[in-house]
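Hello everyone,

My group is preparing for a crystallization screen and wants a predicted model to guide construct design. The compound we'll soak is flavin-adenine dinucleotide. Before spending weeks at the bench, it would help to have a computed complex in hand. I've included the protein sequence and the ligand's SMILES below. Output in structure-token form would be ideal because that's what our pipeline reads.
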Amino acid sequence: MTASHSVTGSHSVTGQTAAEEADVIVVGGGPAGSTVASAVALRGHRVLLLEQQTFPRYQIGESLLPSTVHGVCRILGVEDEVAKAGFKVKRGGTFRWGRNRDPWQFSFALSPRLSDPTSFAYQVERSRFDAILLGNARRLGVDVRESCQVTGVLADEERVRGVTWRGPGGEVHEARARYVVDASGNTSRIHTHVGGKRTYSDFFQNIAVFGYFAGGRRLAKPNDGNIFCAAFDEGWIWYIPLRDDLTSVGAVVSRKNAAAVQGDPAAALRRLIDSCAEVRELLDGVPRATEAPYDQVRVRKDWSYWQSQLWRPGMVLAGDAACFVDPVLSSGVHLATYGALLAARSINSSLAEGPDALDEARCFEEFEARYRHEYGLFYEFLISFYDMHRDERSYFWKARKVTNVGAPELEAFVELVGGLASGDSSLAGPGQVGARLTAASSDLDDVVGRLPGSDGLRNPLYESPTFRQTFQQGSVLQERGLFGGPLEDETPLRADGLVPSEDGLAWLEAGN
Ligand SMILES: Cc1cc2nc3c(=O)[nH]c(=O)nc-3n(C[C@H](O)[C@H](O)[C@H](O)COP(=O)(O)OP(=O)(O)OC[C@H]3O[C@@H](n4cnc5c(N)ncnc54)[C@H](O)[C@@H]3O)c2cc1C
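Reply:
Good plan to model first. Here are the tokens for the complex, ready for your pipeline.
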């Protein structure tokens, strides 16, 4: 076996104590790394996670989607802890975008699959959110080691067999495992060991400059936790309320502006905010934050890319190591955690013994097909979304076209931007059906009770979300007949494909 191309330069791996062994080694402790590590540990496998930084560490990407909060976090058993952390509740998004000069908005509650109690996500301080996920992995038995940098990948002709890594004191180690997961984000080079190449989109080649403000005006309730995205001549600006006294603000502009932005990021951010009337007003008189790590203005290239190969025997990519689309629909953490969950299912089914065992190549082909499908939905939709000559109705129509879920247009849009377009019902959550039925029946009780006292001008039935949804479901059923139907968990994504197990942690043959 060789230490194949060391990532940060070559070094000797001789003269050490015997290599450690695990079932799975995860590189990186961001959302993708914690998710895959936890989901594999939940099936009883030994996981070693190596993270080069010490948590809590700063990361951008603060606006989450319901699929992460209620889907992945529930599967990992960390949904309650995240709920108790006091993050700002995000019920949807508000956009000054496209031909329409007035802001328009969507709420996650517009989709029946995201109805109460799951019709929201959070705006999170990533240092805290990521630390919660990593702490949960530790509690589930993952051997998490911080300040440990993976420097190379061990492989032979057949497969990847482990990694080399450097500990906090600079000492070099080897660790071996059946699988290595690269979840090391967008700047590391570990992904090169999978082979293939990273392709950058010709379309999304932007640069982001972002900072934090000590407060800022809020949209009217109940939309006060919405992400607000405002397009202006030079690009667009995000405005994310993190706490009453903290707002994340970033401008995304074409790479042609890179030199100006990189020269003096703070001045560039100020100038861009001043050119966007809506955000300028929200921040009028509000100073920049002075607490670390929010006291800096940072710049990041946010080009869209994907890897031509997402796995090889013994190694798999997840999160930004695999692909990145664009920040505007807040899909980064969703794609990272969903991709990580798909990778974990493939590892769990390949490591399983007895009747649950599945062929490795089949499992990882399923992972790759679903991951590319989800990435593709966002990518294709975003190409139209960046066309500012359209209005919101045209965006909703496009969402329905790319997702092909057979839902009405606005719902298709909400499901896409809620992270549920994959149709993977483990994300929507079988356990929520009971809660929804209870909520629906008390809602119906309430409106029926109000019928006798109604003024005859307005029927209380039409104010009831349950009643409205029933009509919507009817139209979904009609459209299922017309369009061939939505993707559902029982339906494999492709012929001879696999479906998720009920706990969302492994693959099953369809029909089992
Ligand atoms: C401008 C911008 C705005 C964004 N806004 C949003 C948003 O609002 N919502 C959203 O969901 N997403 C957003 N994103 C995307 C989001 O930041 C990422 O998609 C997300 O952080 C990916 O998670 P990850 O776990 O793959 O990687 P990361 O969060 O980057 O974690 C990777 C980890 O690996 C560690 N690591 C790296 N190399 C090594 C090594 N050799 N050995 C050991 N450890 C290593 C790193 O220290 C890091 O902790 C945005 C991105 C950009 C560029």
